[in-house]
Design a protein that fits this description.
This protein is α+β, with helices and mostly antiparallel strands. It has 28 helices and 17 strands. It is about 55% helix and about 10% strand. The chain binds adenosine-5'-diphosphate and magnesium ion.
Length: about 725
């Protein structure tokens, strides 16, 4: 029987790849075509309904129930005009992807007359049958079920990929007792907390600021593989990464992929998912090859953080659906292939005022410079003070392969600011006197704005290894995993920033109350913050052993694995800052901690199972078949009377193969035993640690080592699993 592997290779080379590209359309002609924007709402809603919707969108106010029916029917009319028959409440559960449950507009009146309807109640609230979404014991403890509630701050949209068109209503997922069970709700709360405190601090410099929002521009990295290859790899199907596979002779050494042109077939796929994205209002702007073979990246123009998070979640879904149309698969896993680069999702983050100022853009005048320095230094202090929580926000089984390993970036949270700003902070710090004198003035008179080119030079070339880098007018949180929902990292970053700015305001006001001039008070607190947080600043090579040693001396946390990293979510400090900023209650934090641990356990459990299964039903049979061939060969040579010399090489190979065969089957047995033991642990945290240490660390690399050796030793024809070179280079 032909193996899936050879069938995949055959299909690939015999089919004409690279579907014909459709005619180019202007992006502006299709942008937002499938979104119920305020502009569309104006057309479909009465004045009253429109006003209510607009104020909910802008002011985050609750929808007036009295007009909900009108809004719902307006949305339905718009959707039906576009051929939509079904609707769904769309939300972002803690499983990491998006969730939907489709319902139709169609219904029967009491007399049996069929009609299409969509009323306000259905728009505002739904009860998905969501008992299987993770709730970390929340619903068990508090309430058995949850509901989805409309979030008018994100617009409704139409998903038009695959079968039929569906109207999607963005919602939050809430338990009956009010605990949030999704990613989006806490993010909105964190942004609100940040906004409030950032406005107060901005008002030191400009009284006209009434609103501050966080901005996010993500950069999504991903791999693309052929669908038939994907299907022939049970590990990719089950866990999103390859658990076995020998490094190809040619990997990424030449870096030719990075500079090369985008392969035709992938290009067609990109154009296609970009078109779908534009229709949904996702402002994609760049696409390019990444360092590893078959690795790519796309990035949009930055947006308000909650919109950007929705768009990233949507994009991941769209990429997945569109890839199938092209007989490709997108791998969003952080480390789908050992030995070559993994994927991240850089989160470019800043804050913007309603007066149009980017609070992390260096200023032109002393006043705007002081404002910049304030927000800049507060960010550094926030990251310094709450590095552990920030680390927890990006912890996942997949991301452990990047952060814990010798690859970008390390699990140590540090901040890169570049030589120029290091010097500026150093100068500010030197001015430790109590008075505000000419030298302080001199610092503030620096035209930081004009040195932006210098900052960029400084900050784009040398920061590759830093998890948190200042890049000219924003910070780039580079440690976020490619498969993650950015909301987690953004909720934490905005909360710790809200907390720090709140403290900053208190500290400055205390000095002003003592009669200090405002600017002097601000400068004074900035100085204090620089001194108390400078140990988080690091300009060197984040991958180096020296940095690990140095970070240890500085007392910076370096937590390599998820089960331990997650501890930071439930410390008293964490509970305090999340609660006092109105982001998470203690119960919600405990629940999330539990959910993340459970996710980790399940991921590692699946990997362990698939390893065992593949070893037993793919690897060993191939190795044993080839072993028999060698045995027959040796026997034959002996039979015809040749001496030992003539088959000594075959014997050597046979010995090696036999050794690896027994190692693999032995280790797999032992791993199953270890898993049984760990499965019996009742405490979730202990169980996660068990999976990390007694299953993953104790066995994965060892089993893989022997399997990968066998891949090299066993005749190619006998090997049933697509090899790295085939998955990475054939398309
Ligand atoms: P690169 O990092 O590749 O040099 P850019 O500096 O243009 O590219 O930006 C990278 C990402 O940062 C883009 O997604 C962009 O939208 C985003 N970005 C730029 N300015 C901001 C900002 N003020 N807030 C948030 N994201 C931003
Ligand atoms: Mg970048």
């Amino acid at each position: 029987m032909e193996s899936l592997r050879f069938k995949a290779i055959n299909d690939l080379t015999s089919s004409s790849n690279g579907k014909g590209l459709g005619r180019s359309t202007k992006i502006t002609a299709i942008f937002n075509e499938n979104v119920f924007t305020l502009k569309v709402a104006r057309e479909f809603l009465s004045d009253e309904a429109f006003k209510s919707l607009a104020s909910s969108v802008k002011g985050g106010k609750k929808i007036d129930r009295a007009v909900a029916n009108q809004i719902a029917s307006g949305i339905r009319q718009w959707a039906e005009a576009k051929g939509v028959t079904h609707f769904t409440h769309w939300f972002q559960p803690l499983t990491g992807s998006s969730a939907e449950k489709h319902d139709t507009f169609f219904t029967l009146k009491s007399d049996g007359t069929p009609i299409e309807t969509f009323d306000g109640d259905t728009l505002i609230q739904q009860e998905p049958d969501a008992s299987s979404f993770p709730s970390g014991g929340l619903r068990a403890t508090f309430e058995a079920r949850g509901y989805t509630a409309w979030d008018p701050s994100s617009p409704a949209f139409i998903m038009d990929i695959g079968e039929g068109k569906t109207l999607c209503i963005p919602t939050l997922f809430v338990s009956y007792t009010g605990e949030l069970l999704d990613y989006k709700g806490p993010l909105l709360k964190a942004v609100e907390a940040l906004g409030k405190n950032a406005v107060e601090v901005s008002n030191y410099f400009d009284k006209n600021v009434t609103k501050v929002t966080a901005t996010l521009g993500w950069e999504q990295e991903y791999f693309v593989v052929d669908e038939a290859m994907f299907n022939a790899r049970p590990d990719l199907v089950a866990s999103g990464r390859t658990v076995f596979g020998h490094a190809p002779a040619k990997g990424q050494q030449l870096e030719d992929h990075y500079f090369g042109s985008i392969p035709e077939r992938v290009y067609a796929f990109m154009r296609d998912f970009e078109t779908e994205s534009y229709r949904l209002g996702i402002p994609l702007r760049t696409r390019h090859n990444e360092v590893a073979p078959s690795q790519f990246e796309c990035a949009p123009i930055f947006e308000e953080v909650s919109v950007a998070v929705d768009h990233n979640t949507l994009l991941m879904d769209i990429m997945d659906r569109v890839a199938k149309r092209h007989k490709l698969r997108v791998l969003l896993h952080e480390k789908p292939f050992a030995g070559i680069n993994g994927s991240g999702k850089h989160n470019n983050w800043s804050m913007a005022t309603d007066t149009g100022v980017n609070l992390l853009a260096p200023g032109k005048t002393p006043k705007t410079n002081l404002m910049f320095l304030t927000f800049f230094v507060n960010t550094i202090k926030a990251v310094h003070d709450y590095a552990d929580i920030l680390r927890a926000s990006i912890a996942s089984a997949g991301n452990d392969h990047r952060l814990g390993a010798n690859e970008a970036p390390p699990a140590i949270i540090s901040v890169f600011i570049g030589g120029y700003l290091t010097k500026v902070l150093e100068d500010v710090k030197q001015r430790v006197g109590d008075k505000f004198d000419e030298q302080d003035e001199a610092i503030l008179k620096l035209d930081l704005h004009r040195s932006i080119p210098e900052l960029l030079m400084d900050n784009t070339d040398r920061n590759r290894t830093s998890p948190f880098a200042f890049t000219g007018n924003k910070f780039e949180f580079r440690a976020v995993g490619s498969a993650a929902n950015c909301a987690n990292a953004m909720t934490v970053l905005n909360t710790i920033m809200a907390q720090t700015l709140g403290q900053f305001k208190k500290d400055v006001d205390a000095l002003i109350d003592k009669g200090e001039k405002k600017e002097i008070a601000i400068m004074h607190v900035i100085r204090e913050y620089i001194v108390s947080s400078e140990k988080v600043l690091f300009e060197g090579d984040g991958y180096s052993d020296e940095w690990h040693a140095e970070a240890g001396r500085r007392g910076l946390p370096n937590v390599r694995t998820t089960p331990y990293a997650l501890d930071a979510m439930v410390t008293e400090r964490a509970k305090h800052i999340f609660e006092s900023n109105g982001v998470y209650t203690h119960a919600e934090l405990e629940a999330r901690h539990e959910i993340e641990l459970e996710k980790y356990i399940k991921k590692v459990q699946i990997e362990a199972r698939i390893m065992g299964e593949m070893a037993t039903s793919h690897i060993l049979p191939a190795a044993i078949r080839y072993q028999n061939v060698l045995i027959e060969n040796i026997k034959g040579l002996k039979d015809v009377g040749l001496d030992g010399e003539s088959y000594s090489n075959q014997k050597q190979i046979l010995v090696k193969i036999s050794e690896h065969i027994s190692k693999v089957s032995d280790l797999v047995e032992k791993m199953i035993e270890a898993r049984k033991k760990v499965n019996a642990i009742t405490d979730t945290r202990e169980k996660a640690i068990g999976y990390s240490e007694q299953v993953k660390e104790a066995f994965f690399d060892k089993i893989r080592y022997s399997v990968d050796k066998l891949e090299l030793l066993v005749g190619d024809h006998y090997w049933a699993l697509p090899k790295y070179r085939e998955m990475l280079f054939l398309r």
